[in-house]
Amino acid sequence: MTTYPVEVPADSAVFGEGTSAFARFGYSAAVRAHDHLFIAGQIGRRADGTIPDTIEEQAENAILRVGEILRLEKLDLSALVDVTSYHVDIHQHLPGFLEAKARLVEAPYPAWSMIGVSGLASPGLLVEIRATAAYR
Fold first, then answer.
1. Do residues 127 and 88 make contact, with C-beta atoms less than 8 angstroms apart?
2. What pLDDT score does 1 carry?
3. SS (H, E, C) the chain
4. What residues does 87 pair with on adjacent strands?
5. β 80-88/36-43 pair status
6. CB of 34 closer than 8 Å to CB of 135
7. What local confidence, expressed as pLDDT, does residue 95 receive?
8. Among 72, 91, 77, which Cα is nearest to 129's?
9. Whole-angstrom Cα Rg for the chain
10. What is the span of the domain harbouring residue 33?
């Protein structure tokens, strides 16, 4: 099986300081295997490393990070086939998440599971999105 990691450039305007997390935590932003791209969980930090207070901004940032990884592989959000999002206080934050998602993700929609969790890697994070895309 041929696989290769997708490298996010250190000067990425979307990821900014966030590119250091890949080496620090020992993982790839995404890995291509066969005709699929497996995207690691993306969080809603801003490029400067700060965490927004609102679920809307965090959701938008996380989706934009997924989109940036797809762009690096000459894909876009329409290539997504399976998405899982993890939500802190899902019942409180789901409406705001869905608002941001509706602005950025268009039909045809991928399969999408939304799971409530008690917390994420850093205090203040409200959502994390992992995804799988298919190459055409």
1. yes
2. 61
3. CCEEEECCCCCCCCCHHHHHHHHHHCCCCEEEECCEEEEEEEECCCCCCCCCCCHHHHHHHHHHHHHHHHHHCCCCHHHEEEEEEEEECHHHHHHHHHHHHHHHCCCCCCEEEEEEECCCCCCCCCEEEEEEEECC
4. 116, 127
5. unpaired
6. no
7. 97
8. 77
9. 14
10. 3-134
Residue labelled with tokens 């590119």: 19
Cα–Cα distance between 70 and 79 in angstroms, integer?
8
CATH number reported for the structural domain that contains residue 74 in this entry = 3.30.1330.40
Q: Looking at residue 23, what is its pLDDT?
A: 82
Strand-by-strand arrangement of the 127-134 sheet: 3-6, 30-33, 36-43, 127-134, 80-88, 111-117
Task: Name the token pair of 134.
Answer: 């298919």
- Within a 10 A sphere around the Cβ of 76, how many other Cβ atoms? 12
Distances (CA, A) of 61 to 1, 81, 84, 135: 32, 20, 16, 23
Q: Residue range 86-113: average pLDDT?
A: 97
What total number of domains does the chain contain? 1
